[in-house]
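Re: that backbone. Tokens:
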């Protein structure tokens, strides 16, 4: 081991080789998964170039950074154990790849720990971690042999050859990525609503989506007398559960299926949020953690924090298929829609639309920014009036106090995030949503179709579930003092929603048909999630009104039944291509099925 004079700088070697390895390995090992997870659908050559450059930049930055950190270990070995390397450039060139892969994995585990303060989830991937460590050891041994050869017998081989090989790997990886991209799904043509009767049912229909609503909360309130509106509706109408699909039940995929009657393979919507970035088509932002992609997700968060990627609710263009209000509008029904997904940008010729780009809800905490701008609502002539409830000042100063009548707002020990902020935002957005809905019904007291989406309950359930249902956590119950202090918040929230729903219904000039559903239920989770309350399968179904007979016994409803049910309540048959069925009898004056 002859000491060589003027060996190159360790930091430069680590960064340079790390960038090369990062791009070469990134395109082959990570890029396909990144594209799939974000559902990036490249349509033009320009977008392909932007995607390739963006991935190259991300892989190079991550590779250089992580290998620099890991290279310190190699420098330590050089200084303390092995003595000066025979050829430092070859040493960092060859071992840079292994160092990078190990550093990437450790970074991913560290990110998981930082988010959840627990590594319990990793037990599920124990065997793959063991295989990973074994392959790193084998790779190191092989590289050691190669290193010995290139620094002794094959001295004529220069490190430049390795650099070119890595560059070639990167280029072929990028080409392979371009070739494997799936062809774009054509937008489905599902046809239109079919008139079932010459004279359409003119009973107004109020369609309410309460994200995450569950009978576990609503039933005790109905029975205990604190939810008289829901009780009256349930007593006269029909109830059931909506069986959610696709654990862990992301709301975006659920509402896409509910509102179109189509599976997610057709709607193309799998996630809650979309990402908007210059030069790329809108893509989706997976929010789950993934040991394989955590470091990539953290770069993505940096890009979002610096404004390169804008997190947003999925625009209408990401949804393949027509939401039910478009089907109704096309069939001549006067529709109004409030804050449901896939309403942005609102189509100018549609009825009243308050798109989901209006009002700050729980997504604000994840960087979704929204201003009450006139383009986010239709018709333009009513923009001032419709946006008034979303002006920045607080809508109901006393509400938070009523929901949580305690001065003790220190964060509970078992909460990773601030539950009080969640409650404040949720009650605020739901109040504004009720207010704008009331404005719509005041102006049009027999509004033929009004769809209103409430985001708040889901967020409050996420944050307060364990205090309301401490028995759900036998292994790890919340502190009794927190149960005492916070246990009633969810019930008060249900009471609040029930109260405001009653006020909204009272504004109608004639009793409307009411359809209330949720996209999934709620329950405890032991998985690594930001909250201890999480989505569960059984959502709620409640239909009640003049056209809906009382029906004893709960029924099970699928996502795909909602569009046909809404269509039937407005006197239409759903397009034949939809697989769901109407779950409440069609309007009283309907002619018998053909
Ligand atoms: Zn949801």
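Recovered sequence:
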């Amino acid at each position: 081991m002859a000491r060589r004079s003027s060996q190159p700088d360790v930091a430069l070697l680590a960064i340079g080789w790390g960038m090369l390895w990062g791009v070469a390995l990134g395109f082959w090992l990570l890029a396909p998964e990144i594209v799939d997870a974000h559902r990036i659908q490249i349509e033009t050559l320009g977008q392909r170039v932007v995607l390739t450059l963006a991935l190259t930049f991300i892989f190079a930055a991550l590779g250089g950074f992580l290998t620099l950190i890991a290279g310190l270990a190699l420098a330590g070995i050089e200084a303390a154990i092995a003595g000066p390397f025979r050829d430092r450039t070859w040493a960092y060139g060859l071992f840079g790849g292994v160092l990078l892969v190990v550093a990437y994995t450790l970074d991913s585990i560290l990110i998981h720990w930082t988010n959840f303060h627990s590594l319990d989830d990793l037990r599920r991937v124990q065997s793959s971690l063991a295989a990973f460590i074994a392959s790193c050891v084998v790779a190191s041994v092989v590289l050691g042999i190669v290193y010995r050869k290139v620094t002794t017998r094959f001295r004529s081989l220069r490190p430049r050859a390795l650099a070119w090989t890595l560059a070639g790997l990167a280029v072929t990886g990028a080409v392979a990525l371009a070739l494997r991209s799936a062809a774009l799904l054509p937008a489905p043509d599902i046809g239109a609503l079919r008139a079932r009767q010459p004279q359409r049912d003119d009973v107004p229909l109020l369609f309410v989506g309460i994200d995450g609503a569950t009978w576990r909360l609503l039933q005790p309130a109905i029975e205990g007398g604190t939810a008289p509106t829901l009780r009256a509706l349930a007593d006269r109408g029909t109830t059931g559960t909506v069986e959610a699909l696709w654990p862990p039940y992301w709301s975006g995929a659920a509402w896409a299926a509910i509102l179109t009657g189509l599976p997610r393979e057709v709607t193309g919507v799998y996630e809650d949020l979309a990402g908007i970035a210059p030069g790329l088509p809108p893509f989706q932002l997976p929010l789950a953690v993934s040991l394989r992609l955590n470091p990539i997700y953290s770069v993505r968060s940096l890009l979002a924090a610096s404004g390169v990627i804008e997190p947003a609710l999925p625009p209408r263009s990401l949804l393949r298929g027509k939401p039910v209000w478009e089907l109704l509008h096309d069939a001549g029904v006067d529709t109004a829609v409030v804050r449901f997904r896939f309403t942005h940008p609102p189509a100018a010729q549609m009825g009243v639309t308050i798109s989901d780009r209006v009002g700050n809800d729980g997504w604000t905490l994840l960087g979704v920014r929204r201003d009450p701008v006139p383009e986010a609502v239709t018709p333009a002539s009513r923009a001032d009036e419709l946006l008034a409830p979303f002006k920045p000042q607080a809508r109901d100063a006393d509400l938070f106090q009523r929901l949580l009548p305690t001065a003790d707002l220190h964060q509970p020990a078992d909460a990773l995030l601030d539950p009080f902020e969640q409650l404040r935002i949720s009650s605020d957005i739901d109040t504004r949503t009720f207010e704008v809905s009331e404005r719509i019904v005041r102006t049009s007291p027999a509004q033929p179709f009004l769809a209103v989406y409430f985001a708040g309950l889901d967020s409050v359930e996420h944050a307060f579930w364990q205090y309301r249902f401490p028995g759900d956590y036998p292994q790890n119950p919340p502190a009794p003092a927190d149960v005492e202090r916070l246990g009633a918040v969810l019930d008060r929230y249900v009471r609040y929603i029930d109260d405001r729903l009653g006020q909204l219904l009272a504004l109608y000039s004639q009793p409307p048909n009411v359809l209330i559903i949720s996209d999934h239920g709620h329950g405890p989770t032991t998985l690594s999630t930001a909250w201890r309350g999480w989505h569960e399968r059984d959502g709620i179904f409640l239909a009640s009104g003049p056209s809906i007979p009382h029906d004893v016994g709960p029924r099970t409803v699928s996502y795909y039944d909602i569009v046909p049910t809404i269509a039937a309540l407005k006197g239409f048959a759903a397009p034949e291509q939809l697989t769901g069925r109407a779950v409440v009898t069609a309007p009283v004056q309907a002619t018998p099925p053909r």
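The chain is about 45% helix and 10% strand. The CA atoms of residues 41 and 184 lie 7 Å apart.
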